[in-house]
């Protein structure tokens, strides 16, 4: 697949590295030779220096023959992204997508307007991140989660602490619990250190494992009991940093929570936020990295703490401090991917990474049209995909146990009409089923063949 990426910033560079690993032909445009040199030293890409909204530069990058054009210049360059995406489509790119930083563009009416102009997808990473955090505040027992068909099936991630009842238990023993409960959940992967494991029957749970489990809606309560977990009700929230993510999150959660407090160091930004946000959102000017200041702001009275400054180290350390001060639920935005495991090992309950969230939305364009959704789960190298099964595809020919499905992938669950159930060896997938698949990166293309 020929892909042109406009923008070699953090998001663009991450996408270039990820997509080049999938045997795609990648060309990256950027006006900064420094960023392009740094990227070409670590990824197999062609680089073109220049303004991505210049027609000459776009043609040099080969947009006329591109299967996909991705405009991901930094958020302040939103206009450049929109213009370059529109030009790329007119010049011949089959699909185009653009990063934006304006919620107004995502309303139903405006999205239709941009579709008419040729842009297939607009994405706002900060808004997507805020939505992820809001979901994590609803499900406090897990470190990450995602829903299929409005929650009929759910994938949740659980960290195993030293008091977990399942430590030392193997998959066969754990599956016996599931069988007693009507096969309502199944372990689909384990993240252990830097490795992601698709478990076998003799794989054992270990301390500090991140366990990925798919469950039906009515199986979640029993699952939490087996794992020794419980959800905490969040009624009050403290947010560190007055970033766009913080503002969107505060607006969204103000309808559901009693109290929200934002801590921001920049006084002018505090004034702007306080004017734009609802009355039950308090904005305080101060240094949230200071534990004494947090104590003065009554941090112990808050149910959850979210750190979304533009500095990963600050977010991690502030979340660790909040945890030590008694906050039940902590979430940190961590943009340095190599810091994700570090944050989790230091006790941060959940980690958000905009690059991984964005990558999932865009990676969908490189797979078959039957992929309805794809998501990267933090703490693992794997992806979760949701397929709508077309008639006469390979996945419908035999029961799962008789299929040469990739060894680094697993079908977790199936939604058929109003029913949802966990996939087992005897499961036979039918046309128009919605199927949840968990796969390591090297298996995704092979998995995709079963659904084409």
Helices and strands, with pairings:
Layout: E1 2-6, H1 10-20, E2 25-30, H2 33-40, E3 46-49, H3 55-61, E4 68-71, H4 78-91, E5 95-99, H5 108-116, E6 121-123, H6 125-138, E7 144-148, E8 153-159, H7 171-180, E9 185-192, E10 195-197, E11 210-216, H8 220-227, E12 236-240, H9 244-253, E13 259-264, H10 267-276, E14 281-285, H11 291-296, E15 304-307, H12 312-324, E16 329-333, H13 340-345, E17 350-352, H14 354-363, E18 371-376, E19 383-388, E20 409-416, E21 419-422, E22 434-439, H15 444-451
Parallel strand pairs: 1-2, 1-4, 2-3, 4-5, 5-6, 12-13, 12-15, 13-14, 15-16, 16-17
Antiparallel strand pairs: 7-8, 8-11, 9-10, 9-11, 18-19, 19-22, 20-21, 20-22
Helix pairs in contact: 1-14, 6-9, 6-14
Give the rounded overall mean pLDDT. 88
* Total domain units: 4
Derived from helix and strand composition plus strand pairing, the structural class reads alpha/beta
CATH superfamily of the largest domain: NAD(P)-binding Rossmann-like Domain
**How many angstroms does the end-to-end distance come to?**
16 Å
The total count of strands amounts to 22
Q: What's the level 1 CATH class of the largest domain? A: Alpha Beta
* Rg (C-alpha, Å): 22 Å
The residue fraction in helices comes out at 25-40%
Strand order of the biggest β-sheet: 3-2-1-4-5-6
Low-confidence stretches: none
Percent strand equals 25-35%
CATH architecture designation of the largest domain: 3-Layer(aba) Sandwich
Report the major sheet: 6 strands, parallel
Query: What is the assembly state of the chains in this entry?
Result: single chain
CATH topology name of the largest domain, in short, is: Rossmann fold
Number of helices: 15
